[in-house]
Amino acid sequence: MTKARIDARFAALKAEGRAAFVAYVMAGDPDAATAAKILEGLPAAGADLIELGFPFSDPMAEGPPIQRAAQRALKAGMTLQGVFELARGFRAADTTTPLILMGYMNLIVTRGVEAFARDAADAGVDGVIVVDCPPEEAGPLADALDAAQVSLIRLATPTSDDMRLKTIVRRTSGFVYYVSVAGVTGVKEADAAEVAPQVARVRAASGLPVAVGFGIRTPERAAAIARVADAAVVGSALVDEIAEAVEMNEDVTRRVLSKVSSLAKAVRSARVGQTTV
Question: What is the number of other CB atoms lying within 10 angstroms of the CB of residue 93?
Answer without folding.
Answer: 10
